[in-house]
């Protein structure tokens, strides 16, 4: 009589111990396969994290490596003013290729030279800004306006963009063209002469030649200077 023995649980047909990750047929169990599937997303996420960290480090190194110290103005300067070291400061910027800026290590080349234009504090210094006066440029003119306190902001400084606004009717004679209230011209402050005994501050303005001719015919007491955002159109 032939008998058939059934292998004990956890043993193979030969009676040897079967690994826990194999099923009765000797194939990887479903639990083992599920475990591998669960571990795979974690491995992918870890690999992506490593790639992102490496890429971020490369970007940071590249971006900071392109920054260089350039010369900027520490305070307002006016056209013709001779530059001193106190007028300059160094700023680290990422300049575009071909940008016309002056490196900070060339400060000695500009100290003692006159300004070719008026600029406000923080403005980056360019080669064209230093040297012979560059104003008025072709098609432009400089006109002086004498204003009293209340006709201009006390923060007004050389290099500031302004709007010169007519505040009252200007028909002073029969030959001058009348400028109605609200008429305005855009200009840039070239310089300011401190108020004298009569409290009048003389402001030199750079503006379009035609606008300068019109402005010159308006009595100063009928004008107001309004500061505009830096970087606006002239």
UniProtKB/TrEMBL annotation:
Q: Which InterPro entries match?
A: SAF (IPR013974)
- Sequence segments annotated as region (Disordered): 1-36
| SMART domains assigned | SAF (SM00858)
User: Is-annotated flag, keyword Nucleotide-binding?
Assistant: no
The record's section on CDD domains has: SAF_CpaB_FlgA_like
Q: Which residues cross the membrane?
A: 40-60
Q: Which domain of life is it from?
A: Bacteria
Q: Which segments constitute the SAF domain?
A: 68-131
Q: Name one Pfam family in it.
A: SAF
What does the UniProt keyword field contain?
Membrane, Transmembrane, Transmembrane helix
Q: What is this protein called?
A: SAF domain-containing protein
Q: Which organism is it from?
A: Saccharomonospora amisosensis
